[in-house]
Design goal:
Protein name: LIPA4 protein
Structural class: mainly alpha
Organism: Psilopogon haemacephalus
Order of helices and strands: HHHHHEEH
CATH superfamily: Transcription Factor, Ets-1
Pfam family, one: SAM_2
Number of strands: 2
Largest sheet: 2 strands, antiparallel
CATH topology: DNA polymerase, domain 1
Number of helices: 6
Domain SAM: 16-85
CATH architecture: Orthogonal Bundle
Helix content: 25-40%
Keywords: Coiled coil, Repeat
Strand order of the largest sheet: 1-2
Distance between the termini: 59 Å
Length: 135
């Protein structure tokens, strides 16, 4: 198991609390900004699951000035490492370096064909017209 600091396992990012995210921010050298996360609602599930929450969003919550490019570069690098190693989000190959969730197992399997009856065809009927119950 990969560890980012004394008590935080990277594999457990999804279940990190707000305090654990603050601890991670401190461990990557951004101690001056970590307290800005207190009671912010930022937690591991947000980092791991929200595709719209990126390093810039985190920098905004941390209140890192845009002029502090060094701190923002550290945050970007470490945030991307955290997502790559500790979540199911993956880096897109496009021009922008953004992470996306990997397809879930539900999307990997085709929906089952229920005896060739299309139950979602828009019709009010759920059984074929010639269907009869025999005893």
């Amino acid at each position: 198991m990969l560890w980012c600091c004394d008590s935080l396992a990277l594999a457990d990012v999804l279940v990190w609390t707000n305090d654990q995210v603050m601890h991670w921010i401190q461990s990557i050298g951004l101690r001056d900004y970590a307290n800005n996360l207190a009671e912010s609602g930022v937690h591991g599930a947000l980092l791991a699951l929200d595709e719209n929450f990126d390093h810039n969003s985190l920098a905004l919550v941390l209140q890192i000035p845009t002029q502090n490019t060094q701190a923002r570069q550290v945050l970007e690098r470490e945030f991307n490492n955290l997502l790559a190693l500790g979540t199911d989000r993956r880096l897109d190959d496009g021009d922008e370096k953004t992470f996306r969730r990997t397809p879930s197992w539900r999307k990997r399997f085709r929906p089952r064909d229920v005896h060739s009856i299309n139950l979602l065809s828009g019709s009010a009927e759920t059984l074929p017209a010639g269907f009869r119950v025999t005893s």
